[in-house]
Amino acid sequence: MTLHDVYLLSPELSLAALGLVVILVDMTFRNKGLLAIVSVVGLAVPIALSLILWSDLGGEPGAQMTGIFGTLAVDKFSLFIKFLVLGVVGLVIMSSVGYVSNIRFFPGEYHGLMLFSASGMMLLAATTDLISIYIALELTSLPLAALAAFQRDSRSTEAGMKFLLLSAMSSAVLLYGMALVYGFTGTTHLDGILERLGQALDPSVPFGSYGLFIGVVMVVAGFGFKISAVPFQMWVPDVYEGAPTPVTAYLSVASKAAGFAVILRVFYVAFGEISLDWSGLFAVLSALSMTVGNLVAIAQRNIKRMLAYSTIAHAGYLLAGVAAIAARVPEGESSIGPSGVLFYLVGYAFTNLAAFFAIIAISNRTGSEMISSFAGMGRRAPLLAIVLAFAMVSLLGIPPTAGFMGKLYVFSAAMKADLAWLVVVGVVNSAVSAYYYLRVVRVMYMTDPEDEERVPVVRVPMVALYLTGLGILALGVFPGPIMNVAEKAAGVLF
Amino acid sequence: MTEGAAWAILFLPLASFLVIALVIRPFLNRYDSLSGYVTILAIGAAFVLSLMALAEVASGKGEIGWAAHSWLVIGSLDISVGILMDPLTAIMLVVVSGVSLAVQIYSQGYMKGDSGYSRYFAFMSLFTASMLGLVLSRNIIQVYVFWELVGLSSYLLIGFWHDRPSAAAAAKKAFLVTRLGDVGFMLAILYLFFNREAFLSQGLNPFEIGHINLLAQGGELAGAQIVAMGSGVATWVALGIFAGAVGKSAQFPLHVWLPDAMEGPTPVSALIHAATMVVAGVFLVARFFPLFEASTTAMGVVAAIGAFTAFFAATMGLVMFDIKRVLAYSTVSQLGYMMLALGVGAYEAAIFHLFNHAFFKALLFLGSGSVNHATGTFDMRYMGGLRRHMPWTYITFLIAALSICGLFPLAGFWSKDEILVAAWNFGGGLGQVVFWLALVTAFMTAFYIFRALFMTFHGEFQGGVEAEHGGHNGGGHGVHLAESPMVMVLPMAVLAVLSIVSGFMANPLNSAWGLGVIPAHWFVDFLDHVELVSLHAAKFNLVMAALGTAVALAGIGLAYLMYYRRSVDPDDIAAGMGPGYTAAVHKYYFDNLYEDVVTRGLFYRGLALATDWIDRNIVDMAGTAIAWVGRNMGRAIGKLETGQVQAYGAGISAGLVLIVVVFVIWS
């Protein structure tokens, strides 16, 4: 490992180091309020290092710096995901200030694990080798399992256990798939796979070869678990419901972003040759995820469970953007499939975090996560309620919100890729989702509360809430700047 | 001038709106006079910047080329925002911010003590910002956004005294009627969108105003030859845009909202319903003038509608007793004048008239507000003799009246003359009709405005609001016959000066006459930057000037005989006109037609009841059925969530196998 490798890896390294520093601070100082401050302020280091790397890449489209025997790629795509993950982890830590002050054990480890997991996600977006992808995936998942079990009550422990077991199983599937791909191509490096696939493919067989076909489907299953796509989604509701709410927020946003990043990289770079085969597969998974997620969400009474099914549906919308690979076919036109997915991930991050932050603040006071317990919040907590309502509108995809713009980009990409049927399914699903998203708004504003007492606001989480709310609005009104950056990032994939 | 400064013209009044709405009104409402100062400061700054913009555009003669900013890009569809700073924009900026500034200063006096003082200035700032944004826009979608914002602020201001049922109804009416026209505008935008290939294939943007005009006429862009769109396409787009203009500029048959809009505070009428918003339609047609010129049909429609409206509205102005309604019909009529000028191809004359009209019509409205301040009524039958009590109001009103009649050498004379010349030169059957309608309108204009002047300011005082017995009571003022305060008189005086001199901007006389500061035909030449087909700089025509003056003098003379000397009894004439008079008093029954026949009969009994039945029995049933299916499917799938990890693991495996099997079978 050369010094240059260290430089390329510096954001991840500094983030992991920050995790250790936070644990040390926890052991040294009595004041636990320091932990969040150190974590959030410390994030400035990996952010600054990522910025330096970004400027080092220059303006050339598709610029890339590789290191560690070609397994690590620093390009605008990986940096985009790094910024997203860093922003999300910062906001989640800010929002958990209230939560952390209530837990008795290991507050330092809570922050440390979150930062370790974030470094895994950042790595996941930057690796270009199947082996290192697997390692990064484990680095992401193991801390998350511990975090899910953090509450030390039966529900939380159960959530952590389920997540651990099922993620181990999906890792096994993923590894098996990777082994098959290696068996067919003789390499684990993504560019190498692309090269080999160009040579020996039998056009009469799906994916050019049955061995490769099984391998790719297993890889899809492994990643499908991470992004909670149907039929690999069954763990999601139980884990989301049982895990501490800040962890759920983190899981639903950052983990999903990293999962989509690795899917985009692996499939667009390594399996670009057989895109027609897998784009159909993703289109079907997309339609299934949207439909199942939205239909089951209707029947939920617990808001965290409802948002768990909602996240499955959103995985479906995002997969529509992944499936729209054919969108890159017309020459001279900019592709909007992958850049749409990246934009959607940012918008979804703001939206879902805003929703969860408001839920954290409200359910901390009411002690209930039932949708019915949100009655009258329009009066009891006007600011929280307005942000939560706005987040619901964004999840539903109505302008002027980030959610609307994200759907617009992703669906128009699918439209261009001749996936009109998928767009129809998506739009019908959006209409269906109005039922349960707007129910939250209705309960908050049109039902009378059980007691009239105001919900107190805690300062730091409120700042995080405002930031996310503003983000939803900003992306909904001025999508241009972020979309520009997303297009630059996605340009690396072609 | 930098682009940032140009944006500031829009954002200063917007900031004033936000400051008043978010800071002053919630927290400092006790010091509500702050609102007025903030507004005046912001609009004053915008006015100064507008003057700078005009100076720069004039010195460079032509457009300042600022690039468009991308706002939303989806594939090949690029919606941009940006500033189009050409002579038309520069002139409109000065008119809007200038008149707005005068009106805001006047409002400090007129609205004094009103409980909604801050709200009033917040809305006024919002309106000014929207109107400035409208004229600055370079993209048709941007235009549409500000177009609707202007409509919204107009709605808010007409209904400013919303506890009065008549005001609330008038606001609703204005909003709905103009919306009818906006549908046409929207359709034009959609039509452009569906025909975007014609633009994209030549490297143009279907929403850029410059590109639309370019494609309408054909021409050259960056060395490439642009093939024009067919006149058929141009006709449809132009007519759609014109529909929007008809609504906003209160042209026949959508003129019905403007007289009712007089329910708003009088300064609002002066700013919005005389000088600025209602000319937005004229501005819009002028903005897309090359597009209109590409279609003879569209131009003919514009000329015909404009001429008919000018005549038709003037006849109603003859018989009204409410001074603001006389002025309202006068506005409709003058807007028709501008439209007819556009229709006969006299683009520059229309804008010139718009420019002059803004000053003298705003002044007339401010004068009526001043009169109302003293008498508490708008009904001219209860006024009279105010000349002695309100000398300043009288003199400024007289100047404005002479100007609108078109008497030499006031502003109205120059622009009216140019329009008449243009109509005469247009020729053909349509030209003839348009010209004679315009001439008769000029006569009626002189008559009704002097009728108002004599009834209000001459003769004996008739008692004001106290004599009116429970009639509606202006801004809640009683009778106190005295000149209005300085803050009201001063803006009127400024506007009076402008009503005299603004006409010299066109200066049809050559410099030998000693008006050499402004070059001959400056205004016309200034606007002549686009390559227009039919732009014929109207030359001063002595015969036409004499004819126009004679007609105006005849109108004034008749008014003098009937309402000053009273040697001719108006009632005799009214009786002589028979049913025509009655019809005009009842506004030709248009309100009844729209309300009783169209709204109640057609929409309510016909459409609404039918759709109600369909909604209840078909849509709702289908909705219920779909919801039932969705809910139960959701429950059924939800049952699979047993909570058992081994079941979930089995689910993943089963899903995997299923994908493989389905794929193999299908391929």
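The longest helix of chain B spans residues 590-638.
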